[in-house]
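Appendix B, Record 12. Input sequence as logged:
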Amino acid sequence: MKNDLWVEKYRPTTIKDVIGNEEAKTLFIEWLENKRPTKKAVLLYGPPGVGKTTLVNAAANEYKFRIVEMNASDTRSEKAVNRIANPATAFTGLDKFSSEIKGNMLFMDEVDGIAGNEDRGGVNAIMKIIENTRTPIIMAANDSDLEKLRPLKKLCLLIRFQQTRIPLIIMALKKICEQEHIKYEFEALEKIATNSQGDVRSAINDLQGLSEEGKTLTEQDTLAIGLRNKDISMYDTLKGYFATKNIAEAATLLNFSNVEYDDLLITIGDNMPRRHTNPDNLAEAYDYLSQADVFRGRIGTENWHLLKYVYNNLAQAAAVNPESYKPFEFISPPIRIITLFWTKNKRTMLTSICTKIGTQCHISKYEAKMIFVPYLRLMLQQKKKAPPLIEWLKLTPEEVTFLTSLKMF
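Logged structural output:
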């Protein structure tokens, strides 16, 4: 398991192993154990990477709760909240009476991210569920001061998390180094911890990124690390990336951006032709970008020690002819994501057709798409042969129209 992401590998499984924020931990456990009259829900708030989610998972493990989770990737509309949260909070499962499971615990991460039309009615739905809940409801937020959370806060016990103290982070890094058999200078760990600004998760990620097997981690290795900006959005990342003056500047920006790796690769690729009008410069930048993509593929879900090579190649791509930079309008989100959104109905239609072909011909959907669909399209265009085929495959009029007008897929 040497190449696992360390922040997951060393995630605490017990409450006592969650470092820092002792007062917040005590308040949370008192609420969970119902040691005093309190509210039905709790809102944990504070900067990212300080242990909010880790504490919830550790407490669930220790007190034998099953976590039902809604996170930032889920739509939190009224309908979506009710579909997931109502069953989790309204009923008592049979396994509650076993010694293994005490019951459900509803955890809603990053509730401050509820926004936009897709999450319409989400806050009101959560409030109704809190009023009728029979199980613990826990929410986490980075920013509790948002206006939209004001009604929700009135129903919750608010528990504030502070940045984790630097000495505690250093102790955690030392423990990981011992487990991973990494030699280090104390000053290197101190620099990583200080740079994290109280964010344990980022400190562990930095440690893993800088460590190399058989090599002592020195303070010199940490010189490229600057103070972490935890709130660099996609727009700000692109703005800084394309305006960079050198490799070191680009590397620092990439190291401290929270944009998801794959989205960043795709979006940089989409915007590269707008950055470089010179074909030679564009070719050179794309060459570095393709190498970054190769290393991202080699990382998969385990080989995170290769992440440094992704960033190195991206930094070199950014530093191609910095003197030629002129401000331009960015393409975001990635073109590929936009294309997938607009072609969703077509892809759904094609999948339905291939499923019908596969069922009748006893082949996979992939074979149906690649081998049968082109011939089926031609046969349906011949009116005499079309009716038997339509009846045999049970194709709808919409599917027939789709196939006969199909040009490529």
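The first strand starts at residue 41 and ends at 45.
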